[in-house]
Amino acid sequence: MNEMKNVRWLRSVAFVLLLVMAFAGVSQCYSLPASYDTRNLAAFDDEEENTVDGLVFGTSVIGYSWNTPAAWRDYGMAVYHMGTSEQPFAVIRPFLDYAVKKHDIKYAVIDVHGLRSKTVISSLKDTKVKSAYLNFPDFLHSFKVLHAIFDYAKMAFEFYGEPTENRSRYVSIYGKSYYLPLYTFHSRWVDGLVKSDFVTVKNRFLGADDREGKAFGIMDCSGEIGKWDYEVTGEIDGFQRQQLEMLFEYGKEKNIELIFISLPSFRTKAEQHELANLIRFCSEQGYDAIDFADEKVLADAGIDLKTDFVNKGHLNSRGGVKSTKYVCEFLKEKGYYTPDHRGEEKYASWDTATEKYFRFYENGWKDKK
């Protein structure tokens, strides 16, 4: 009799577990359509244990300006980027929490574009929030990302005020639907699911951008340099200070060194002032920082304003290779942990991916000036 009760109990537990697993699996695929962000984060998640030493975070400028294959080919540096389009600054900590479970992360390079006041609010649009947490490769950890965004949104809205126009387009910290992607995206059954919703589409190139239009586009930005103002003075605001100080404390607690950067991007004068003030604040707090809004830095990196941008806000792949090399040299010069892993057996896949990437790269630029 007892044996029968035990069997029934075990069957009940097994049923509940299977139900939870099925719901998690369906929710994972039945959410946002596969995108570049999805493949980028999934590519990082595919790397073998203890093969990544450093990470790069930030908005879309990261995807254009940090080129992991270039860092690997020229320096043997195992530094991955986990940037996403208009990435909410709050996700950096939960992203790192996830990364350090699998890798011995020594440092993180963090771009400050995400803390421009305009971008802070823009990053809290419903679509950006869902992109940040639903594209995260681990279903359960994605809720830790979501909770960090909720806390961030509350602080941002208290400081800057809630958007007055199209409020429904922005995150609601009380929205239950964020926990039920199956409910939020149920209409996709009508729109049609695709293979990549069920099977991870791996990025072939260590997370480097493989969209030809973005990688090989050219926009002459030489006329934009005159808009830069080098006599920048001012202070960061209270919200920006709060977010940076929280990150400083996190880095100390986790023993992760932080480097701050403002990657090449032509913004309005007011936005450029914000970026410069953010970089200066980090530097004043004792953190190494790089500001690409400086003609000397651009020249030292070899960036050609006529040929190395795809649009005013982003470098193309040629510019990205150059900015990556500049940052790698900076990391080495400043004494960060930058061993050359080339030739090590467990990094064989990095050699293969890099070789494939530069075939793609050379073919793409072959017919360009």
Give the arrangement of secondary structure elements.
Blueprint: H1 2-29, H2 36-45, E1 54-57, H3 60-65, H4 68-75, E2 79-81, H5 92-100, E3 107-111, H6 117-122, H7 126-134, H8 141-160, H9 181-184, H10 188-191, H11 212-215, H12 238-254, E4 257-262, H13 269-284, E5 289-291, H14 295-301, E6 309-311, E7 314-315, H15 317-333, H16 348-365
Parallel strand pairs: 1-2, 1-3, 3-4, 4-5
Antiparallel strand pairs: 6-7
Helix pairs in contact: 4-15, 4-16, 5-8, 7-8
Structural notes for this entry:
The chain is globular and about 70 Å long. It has about 375 residues and is α/β, with parallel strands linked by helices. A hairpin with a 2-residue loop joins strand 6 and strand 7 (about 315). The relative contact order is 0.16. It has helices at about 1-30, 35-45, 60-65, 70-75, 90-100, 115-120, 125-135, 140-160, 180-185, 190, 210-215, 240-255, 270-285, 295-300, 315-335, 350-365; strands at about 55, 80, 105-110, 255-260, 290, 310, 315. Helices cover about 50% and strands about 5% of the residues. The protein is built from 16 helices and seven strands. The chain has a five-stranded parallel β-sheet with strand order 2-1-3-4-5. Strands 6-7 form a two-stranded antiparallel sheet. The model is unreliable at about 185-190 (pLDDT under 50).
